[in-house]
Structure formats: structure tokens, C-alpha cells
Amino acid sequence: MKRGWGLVGALAAAQLVSWGSIYYSFSLFVLPMAQELGWSRNAINGALSLGLLAAGAAAYPVGAWIDRSGGRRVMALGSALAAVLLASWARVESVGAFYVIWFGLGLALAATLYEPVFAVITRLYPESYGTRITALTLIGGFASTVFIPLTQVMIGWWGWRSALVALALCNLAFCLPVHALWLRDEPSHGAARKSGWSFAEPAFRRAFRHPVFWALALCYTCYNTALSATTFHIIPLLADRHVPTATAVAAIAVIGPAQVAGRIALLALGRHIDAAIAGRIAFMLFPAAVALLLAWPASIGALFAFAAAFGTANGIVTIVRGTAVPQLLSRESYGAINGALALPANVARGVAPFAASLLWSATGNYDAVLWAIVALSAAAATGFWYAAWRANRA
Asked: What's the whole-number average pLDDT of the chain?
């Protein structure tokens, strides 16, 4: 059981750096870039949406690559690509070039974040992947806690361009060596020949025809839509309700620790709770959390309760997404199956903030957005409950 924990720890730390330097840092560059370059915030945020769409489109090919050849090459390539493109971002002068860079960073996200590393861990440790994925996400969950203030400090000291160079060096100096030198998970030549790249691969074809696959696809897509809309609109929503900035920041600060607390609880329970049970709880908790904002819009207590429940649910769901496929569907072709499930979910994550903005513009307030989020998260919970029930019958 102790074997391989050093690698898991290194991969977890690499996740922290990858998430923090590429994904969570983005919002901190919007204002200084708008001020220096004269670009609109919508134009800048559009690049992030393009990157998330690219990540969604690349999810299946990356998963299939890992099934066939292991994660070392694709994750190392992703880290190298992230370093090169973050450094290129530091020199950007045109919107067109910025969008090209973020298309490439979307591919880097697809190659380095949770989906590929979950596939690697499941392949390397088939008897203990659940515990190891939980431990990995526990460390990775601190990415925003570490990199948001760190990036803000670097921007304040050196300016946004030099801060991006520093983030590129983080990927080059840490993530690339972990993925290229420490990670050794290439299959044998015989195993590589047996694994397929296409949707016709037998294990994938069986999963694709199974009702559990489609229930999970519905669940993940609805959940990512609701999560992304909530994440990117919570600050404007609270401002719309005249919540003081200090109060809003304090409430949002609860989300990170709650996310980690949920993962610690899951790690402590260990074998006493599986993906089916944890998923039922977490996916039900999300709509209940958002409903608090609708039921008590002026309550500070409800706001903090929402943040705690929202963070706990998301912390557990991240682990469930890494363990549900082998427990409810199949361990064979894990990377391809999980990548196929992630494809519509990641596309939805990219589209959701813009769709929520349109709904807000059409109605003039955030109540309709919140009701849509409740409906989507309830649909996600229903999809997961059906998947767990159907898998139990098989």
C-alpha cells in the first residue's frame, strides 16, 4: 500500500502548480491587461472560454492516448506547452495572438489536469486508486489558495508580463520534470498494441452503449454548467444584492477550506463509503446550497452556509468523477471513457458563464440564473442517482 506514494505526492504537487498557474491565475490578469492594452473584459474572457472549449474537445484523444501509451509523454508535453504559451502570453500585443495562445493553453489543460492524472493513477494502482485519487485532490485543492495570492503579489511587484514568465518557469522547473522524469507508466509493447485509439475499441463501445454512461454524461454536463455559472457569477450576483465587498470575499474564502474538508472526510471514511454513496450525497448538496441563496437572499448566515455547502459538494464531486467510471462502468479504457464523459462537460463549462450573462441581461436580475442553476444541479443529481442505481442492478 505504501508503494508509489512518493509519485502520487509529486503528481499532486504538479496538479497544484498546473491548476494554479494556468486556470486560477487567469482572472487576476484581466484588469491589468485591459488597462495596458485597451481590450474589453469580454474580449479577454472570451479567450478563456475558447481555451475551455479546446480542453473539452481534446479530452477524449488525451484519454485514449493514456490508455494506449501511458501518461508520461502526454502530461510532459502538456507541461512543456503550458510553459511555452505562458511565456508567449507575456509578450502578447494582439487579441488574435491571445486567442491562439489560449487555444493552445486549453490543450495543455486537457493534458495536465485531473482527467489525465486520474487515468494514470487508476492504471498504476488498480487496487487502491480511490484512496490515492482522494489524497491527490486533497493537495491539488489548495491550488487557488496558493496561486491566487501568489500571482497577485507577483503582478504587484513585477507587473503582469513578468508574473506570467514566473508562472511559465513554475511549469518548466517543476511540472515538466515530474511528468517527464518521475512518472513511468508506459505499458508493455504488447499492451500498447492491444489498446485502441478509436470509438470502436471494445471496452469503450460497451460503455458507450450502457445507460450508466449516458446518465453520467448528463450528470457531469449539467453539473459543470451549474458549477461554472456559479463560480464566475457569484461576485456580480452578490454585488447585485448590495452585499459589502468584504463580506462577499469572506464568504467566498470559506469555499476552499470547505472543499478540502469534504475531501478529508472522504479520505477518513476510506473503504466505508464508495463513489456511489459519496456521489449521491455531494450531487444533492449542490442544489440545496444554491437554494439557500434563493430562499434567504438578504441573509448573511445563508450566504456563508451556501459557501460551506458549495465547497464541500465540489470537493467531493471532484473525487467522485475520478472513481465513478471504474466503480460504475469499467476499468478498461478508463482514459477514453472518462475523456468522452469530460468532453461535453468541459464544453458546457466554457459556455456557461456567457449563457448566464445572457439570462441575466434578459431578466435584469440574478434570480432566473439561480433558478436555472438549481434546475441544472438537480438534473445532475438525478443523473447520478440513476447511474448508481442502474450500475447496482447490473
From this structure: 86
